[in-house]
Amino acid sequence: MVTHRLVMTENIVAATVSALRQAAEQAMDSGATRLQLDLARVQDLDSVGLSVLIGISMSLQRAGGALELYNVRDEVFDIIHSMRLDKHFQVHRFPTERDATSS
C-alpha cells in the first residue's frame, strides 16, 4: 500500500477544497492508496469540505486503500463525529500514526 501524506494549511471549506481535491487526485494518480491528512491547522470544515473528504475516501476505498485524518482539533472532530463520518474514515487526534498507536 502506497501512502501519501498531505499537510493541510487552511480550513477545508468551499473556497479552499479545490486545492485539496487536486492534491488528492495527484497522489492517487501517482499510485497512493492510503492518504494521510494532517489537520493540525484546520479549524473549520463545512459541508462542501465534508463532501470532498467523503469523495476522496470512496475513491481510495475502491482502490483498496483508506483515508486517514491526523492531528484533528476538537472542533473539527466534533463536526466529523456528529455526522458519523468517523465510521467511514480513520480519525486520530494524534499527529502521526506512531503516536496514535503508542497511546
From TrEMBL:
CDD domains: STAS_anti-anti-sigma_factors. Residues 12-103 form the STAS domain. GO terms for molecular function: anti-sigma factor antagonist activity. The lineage of its organism: Bacteria, Pseudomonadati, Thermodesulfobacteriota, Desulfovibrionia, Desulfovibrionales. This is Putative anti-sigma-factor antagonist. It comes from Megalodesulfovibrio gigas (strain ATCC 19364 / DSM 1382 / NCIMB 9332 / VKM B-1759). It comes from the Bacteria.
